[in-house]
Amino acid sequence: MKYQDLISEFEAKLETLESCNEDILYKAETGITQTEKCIKHLRKSVVEKGFFSIQEEIRFFKHIKPQIFSKLIYYVKLYNIESKRPRSSSKFQVKYLNNQINKLQVYFNDNLEFYHYYRRGATTLDEQYFIRGQSDLRSPTESFHFFIDDEFSTCQDCTVATIMAFDMLIVYLQQEIEKLENHTVNPKLKPMKPSTKLFWTGNKTELIELIYALHGSGAINSGTADIKEMASLFEQLFNIDLGNYYHTFIEIRARKSSKTKFLDRLIEVLNQRFEESDE
CA torsion sign, 40 to 42 to 48 to 53? Predict the structure, then answer.
């Protein structure tokens, strides 16, 4: 794919950023800087090279640009939310974070018609929504116009990016609420010490893909196991911090290539092992 190298490099940088131990405001600021650079490179490429077909243009503005632009919206909003987060009791913090989730949900309600169009994977209005130069009578309810211009924007690519960003923000905020509530219930609970010398040497996204597959299969506790409990177990088992695995799952779900890259590779190497054993 034309933009795959740029996107892969960008995603690798973000994965490194998310795994670092710096505070959340540092991560947000750095994320904004890295995302702006990537968007500028994308814009330069689009303006200089254009598209070979209407289908390619639709694909770019419906899937590729929002994949990057959503990160900019995410980090800008994250910085704004966290910089104003109260430093008082857990109770007040939980109330603040829940209010932020409610505000994000308002955006989905204000854009309900398009939200349903996008969520159900509809394509009938793609030429109106994702081709440059088309107008839309809707008034945008959010103003993320950092890079919006006639050469690099359609009437709805920013809406797609905002939906993706707010999805990520909601799961981040829910995870923060869980941390605060669990700390309140049992603040002295200590993590279990690693019982093995095993280390996960693949990347975090691969392990998260595996955990969600196991969770969905119903093979553990007949499907009643909590995803958080499973993630915690794998973190302890393989001596790894999975970070915001909810966030990573949303990114896996948004892949336009195979959503099961790691599982596909496992099947491939296991079949190869069988073939070698048969020789």
Answer: negative
3-state helix, strand, coil in the chain (%, to 5): 70, 0, 30
Query: Do residues 229 and 239 lie in contact, with contact meaning Cβ atoms separated by under 8 Å?
Result: no
pTM more than 0.70: no
Is residue 12 over pLDDT 50? Answer: yes
CA nearest to 203, candidates 14, 60, 2? 14
* C-alpha span between 119 and 174 (Å, rounded): 21
How does pLDDT run across 174-216, given as a tens digit for each residue?
A: 889 988 888 654 444 444 454 566 788 888 889 999 998 998 8
Q: Which token pair is 69?
A: 């632009």
d(CA 82, CA 64): 28
Q: How far apart are CA 127 and CA 54, in angstroms?
A: 8
